[in-house]
Write a structure and sequence with these properties.
Alpha-Beta Plaits; 11 helices; 6-stranded mixed β-sheet; 4-stranded antiparallel β-sheet; alpha+beta; Arc Repressor Mutant, subunit A
């Protein structure tokens, strides 16, 4: 008797192919004009020949407007992108899977990243099809910035993610750090849930304050997801919003921007050079042994960069701007004045 094909295995393989094709499309849509080999290197475990077949499938079967640019030697989109085929997961699986997938970013290029990525793909291939989500929507709804994890209530996280995906307004009570003991009611339009440094935050449009605000999940209580829907501002970019500041703080487009320059020596020079602190950072070695570097970045606001400089003590010297130098001097003087 001939062995019958395993439908579960076939479905798993099909799911992995769908994931890869969608990933290829996402990379092309990023606007980097990637070649087949560059896409294959980013996905890992596939050849440039396979990527060429995936692109042909996107062009011919899905009618995606993809063309090769002979000048830039890469692929790009020549028209608007229609809805991507959905990946279907339960809400719990979505939370677990996407957190795991996004958490891999700091490990990109390492052996550990490849091992964990394979495990994530196996989970995706075996998930029951009960809730439909789109990869691009999830990318817009969730991110990881820097490293570290602060425990957040899984139920709160899942409900907020639902509100973001379904574009529903929410209300909750919020405890601000600067006003201990006094809680405020908020009604917001949730845009994004993100892990910023060591905590989880909701980025939302505050209806009473009429601007984007950031809320720490651990200081939220009494969350209610309303039936009221809202339309996202098409001009809002979560990447731009998060990259405007240094760390958790973010600023609007009208905020003053600064060219920050800091000189690090000793252990701080090596430590700073090892990490990605900000999207705009530029690090210039001043000594061959790496014991002295110059750190530059374009920032809006100086609150957190001030604390960051102080945390490195005498190993950090502010070169500019003068506003940052003044802040650091004032904070250091205030520390010395404490008896």
């Amino acid at each position: 008797m001939r062995n019958q094909p395993n439908p579960k295995r076939r479905a798993g393989v099909r799911r992995n192919v769908e994931w890869r094709v969608n990933r290829v499309l996402s990379i092309i849509a990023s606007g980097r004009y990637p070649s087949c080999q560059q896409i294959a290197d980013e996905i890992e475990g596939v050849s440039a020949k396979t990527i060429r077949r995936d692109i042909a499938h996107l062009q011919n079967d899905r009618k995606v407007p993809i063309e090769y640019d002979a000048v830039r030697h890469g692929y790009h989109l020549t028209g608007p992108l229609s809805d991507l085929p959905p990946v279907q997961l339960t809400r719990g699986e979505l939370v677990a899977l996407f957190v795991a997938q996004k958490a891999l970013e700091p490990l990109r290029g390492t052996k550990l990243q490849k091992v964990v990525a394979e495990s994530v793909n196996k989970i995706a291939a075996s998930c029951p099809e009960s809730v439909t989500m789109h990869w691009d929507d999830m990318d817009a709804a969730y991110s990881v910035k820097a490293t570290g994890v602060l425990a957040a209530d899984a139920s709160l996280f899942a409900r907020l993610l639902d509100a973001v995906m379904n574009k529903r307004e929410v209300t909750f009570t919020y405890q601000k750090l600067e006003t201990p003991g006094r809680k405020e009611g908020r009604r917001v339009q949730p845009y994004h849930v993100g892990q910023l440094q060591n905590g989880w935050y909701l980025i939302a449009h505050d209806l009473s304050r009429k601007e984007m605000r950031k809320f720490a999940l651990q200081r939220m209580s009494g969350l209610e997801v309303l039936k009221t829907r809202f339309a996202r501002d098409p001009k809002f970019s979560i990447r731009d919003y998060l990259s405007s500041g240094f760390g958790v703080w973010s600023y609007g487009a009208e905020a003053e921007h600064f060219e920050v320059c800091i000189r690090f020596t000793g252990w701080a020079a090596r430590y700073v050079a090892e990490r990605q602190w900000h999207a705009s950072q530029r690090i210039t070695p001043l000594k061959e042994d790496g014991s002295e570097i110059e750190f530059r970045a374009q920032l809006a606001g100086l609150e957190e960069i001030t604390r960051w400089v102080l945390s490195h003590g005498r190993q950090a010297q502010v070169i500019g701007p003068k506003e940052l130098h003044k802040r650091v001097v004032e904070e250091a003087s205030a520390i010395l004045a404490i008896e």
